[in-house]
What does this fold into?
Amino acid sequence: MSEELSVERSPIVKKSPSRLKKTRYRLTKQGKIAATILLVLAVLIPTSLAVGLGSSLEQAKAELDQLRQSPPGPPAQGGDSAPQGSGAPQGDSTPQVEKPEDPGPEVPAYQALHPELYAAPHEWNTVEKSKVCYLTFDDGPSARTPEILRILENYGVKATFFVVGKDTGQARQWMRDIVDAGHTLGVHSYTHDYRTIYDSVEAYLDDFAREYALIEEVTGVPPQIFRFPGGSINAYNGHIYQEIVAEMTRRGFVYFDWNRQSGDAVRNPPAAATLARNALDKLGTSSRVILLMHDSKGHYNTVSALPAIIEGYQNAGYTLEALTPEVRPIVYAYPNP
Ligand SMILES: [Zn+2]
It folds into this structure.
């Protein structure tokens, strides 16, 4: 206990008056100093505490605001995503950095060629009937074509013709006759020149576009299906058939190979009876048959064999129909390189 406090608390001290007065003065002066110090301390300490606490609160509040403005989780990647968070304004004063668009996988230049060359929208592989035979005739039209059309009409069946570039008045009429009779007209090739069309994807597209335009102009019906000359995989297109198949599929076209042939593709086709026997061989082993035949001008035997072929399939319970883009195609196996 200090002397000053005891004096103030006990002002009546039994001392001599003069000394007492002097002492009281001295003590009172000291007391005033002490009281002032106490007062200053009493004011300063809470104030500094309050100021310190206040600044801490403000700092905490600022941090909280910052947290509210920042979305949880890692920062957004890329420059093209929509702003995230609670909608608090951000970025107004911060210059936005333009990031280049992701170019994605490289697009081949030939995709831009022939912008008219797209099939109409259609379903894929939705028609898969059993006991069905699709008669197909390649390399026409020719004088054999109307003969074949008459036979098909007699039996009341439909077929498919994959035609080549024969731009004469007569050929145009045969193409119209095919469509008018309800058969399907598909693209085979304009030039049918293997070395030319399988030289590059661009060359294939050029040839296809030429035949496509001819069919559309002559019949008014843009073709939707096609058949590769020599089949989808042959001795001439091994280096690019995957690219061509991918590009034609991207454009919506459907191609059909075959799983049965009459054997009329050779230069000197066998007799009609042999062609029919080939076409009907092992009948019943395939529920879905795409039969390859030809209607170019030398194929008299094909015409002669046709009635027996149609009757053979019908007697075995098959229906004969025309191909459409919705039919699940029969194609050559697509081996991995
Ligand atoms: Zn052909």
In short: The longest strand covers residues 132-138.
